[in-house]
């Protein structure tokens, strides 16, 4: 390595050590057609460790990776000047520019900074979007054009995906997970929301994850795993299984969005049994309780109207689910997922595990009264969890 490069790296090392490194850019690819256009580096504080976030700007996607100082130097040595001919180090007091001419001659220019500049160790909120449609898997999943633009007929789906990512971010961010976070997305379907979750957690929140998309349809599992493998998405995998038969050893977060009828209950039961810290589900079709209500012959002022019977069945099904979660020590919350125009199945049931002792007999009494009022023999979730109110 030439003396000039060594000098530039020494300046980087000093700035990293003295915590004066504000940012760094690598640009001007040595190979004109290199898919990697430039790299943006900034210091970040993750779990009280000073790291360097590298944002790799490819032609059609961005990728963010965090490295410690030693790894950063290995990468810089590898990339300068083989991959990039221009590098600028921005410190709190000066800008140091490394330029390599077309003939391979390297020079350094230093410019003092006017005024004061500070180091910002926050994640770059503006640049890292929750879900980036330019990532190639969105095209492969059929949501975008090859150029990364959401297609007209997928606009609604994409809004739903984005909203979902926002909600999940607000739920997961305050939680204190140590090491790899184990997640199961049960009834994952075509994987839209699973990929959004993966992207959000790995690229935006820089988390180590093990995400399993559990899906009963083998054709979907095969197709999605091909997409995962072609993009080298470490920590994401689809598993061909019914929700009932899937018993994860480790589970921190259970997601079940629009899993049909009682499949939602099987998923919740699986989350409870595995002691998941967070359970998020968007229930779908509430046939089991509706049928019980219809068969009971009990009709009140509300349920004599077909539409209201349907809505009441939805509310009773999900209220009992929420009560059962509370029984098992989860603090529950029911929230709207997205506006009705995007999906009619828009309720999100969220359970967060707490250390507070639940009032079990009170909860069981509430379930008992609700069932008696509407002539319900039993809720499927009670049966799978062997609960006897
Ligand atoms: C309506 S889709 C929802 C897909 C995805 N979660 C979403 O919200 O976009 C339901 C998916 O769950 C799968 N599914 C239904 N019952 C299941 C079960 N018992 N075990 C595993 N997968 C199931 C279906 O094959 C389907 O792909």
Descriptive terms for the model:
389 residues, seven-stranded mixed β-sheet, seven-stranded antiparallel β-sheet, Rossmann fold, alpha/beta, 36% helix, binds S-adenosylmethionine
Structural write-up:
The chain has 11 helices and 14 strands. The chain is 36% helix and 27% strand. A 7-stranded antiparallel sheet has the order 4-3-2-1-5-6-7, with helices on both faces. The protein has a 7-stranded mixed sheet with strand order 10-9-8-11-12-14-13, sandwiched between helices. It has 2 domains: 3-112, no CATH class; 136-385, Rossmann fold (3-Layer(aba) Sandwich), CATH 3.40.50. It is α/β, with parallel strands linked by helices and 389 residues long. The protein starts with a helix and ends with a helix. The mean pLDDT is 89. A hairpin with a 2-residue loop joins strand 5 (84-91) and strand 6. It is elongated and about 90 Å long. The structure holds S-adenosylmethionine. Residues 187-189, 192-193, 214-217, 242-244, 257-260, 263, 284 line the site of S-adenosylmethionine.
Question: How is the topology of this model organized?
Answer:
Elements: H1 3-17, E1 21-29, E2 36-46, E3 49-58, E4 62-67, H2 69-79, E5 84-91, E6 94-100, E7 106-112, H3 136-140, H4 155-172, E8 181-186, H5 192-204, E9 209-215, H6 218-230, E10 236-240, E11 253-260, H7 263-274, E12 278-284, H8 287-296, H9 306-327, E13 330-336, E14 347-353, H10 360-373, H11 380-385
Parallel strand pairs: 8-9, 8-11, 9-10, 11-12
Antiparallel strand pairs: 1-2, 1-5, 2-3, 3-4, 5-6, 6-7, 12-14, 13-14
This protein binds S-adenosylmethionine.
């Amino acid at each position: 390595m030439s003396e000039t490069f060594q000098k530039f790296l020494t300046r980087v090392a000093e700035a990293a050590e003295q915590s004066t490194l504000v940012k760094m850019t690598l640009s001007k690819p040595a190979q004109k057609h290199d898919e990697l256009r430039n790299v943006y580096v900034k210091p970040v504080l993750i779990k009280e460790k000073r790291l360097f976030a590298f944002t790799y700007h490819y032609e059609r996607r961005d990728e963010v990776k965090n490295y410690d100082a030693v790894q950063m130097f290995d990468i810089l040595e590898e990339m300068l000047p083989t991959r990039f001919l221009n590098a600028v180090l921005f410190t709190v007091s000066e800008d140091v520019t490394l330029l390599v001419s077309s003939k391979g001659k390297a020079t350094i220019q230093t410019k003092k900074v006017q005024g004061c500049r500070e180091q910002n160790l926050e994640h770059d909120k503006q640049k890292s979007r929750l879900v980036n449609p330019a990532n190639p898997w969105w095209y492969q999943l059929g949501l975008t054009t090859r150029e990364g633009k959401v297609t007209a007929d997928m606009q609604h789906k994409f809004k739903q995906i984005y909203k979902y990512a926002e909600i999940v971010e607000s739920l997961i961010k305050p939680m204190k997970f140590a090491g790899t976070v184990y997640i199961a997305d049960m009834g994952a379907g075509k994987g839209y929301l699973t990929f959004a979750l993966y992207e959000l957690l790995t690229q935006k929140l820089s988390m180590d994850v093990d995400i399993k998309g559990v899906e009963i349809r083998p054709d979907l599992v095969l197709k999605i795993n091909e997409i995962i493998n072609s993009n080298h998405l470490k920590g994401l995998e689809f598993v061909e299984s019914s929700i009932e038969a899937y018993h994860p050893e480790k589970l921190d977060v259970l997601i079940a969005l629009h899993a049909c009828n009682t499949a939602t209950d099987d998923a919740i039961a699986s989350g409870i049994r595995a002691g998941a810290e967070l359970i998020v589900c968007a229930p779908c079709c509430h046939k089991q309780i509706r049928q019980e209500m219809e068969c009971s012959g009990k009709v009140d002022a509300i349920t004599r109207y077909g539409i209201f019977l349907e809505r009441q069945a939805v509310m009773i099904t999900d209220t009992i689910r929420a009560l059962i979660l509370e029984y098992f020590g989860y603090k529950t919350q029911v929230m709207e997922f997205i506006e009705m125009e995007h999906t009619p199945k828009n309720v999100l049931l969220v359970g967060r595990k707490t250390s507070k002792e639940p009032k079990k007999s009170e909860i069981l009494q509430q379930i008992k009264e609700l069932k008696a009022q509407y002539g319900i023999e039993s809720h499927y979730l009670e049966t799978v969890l062997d609960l006897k109110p």
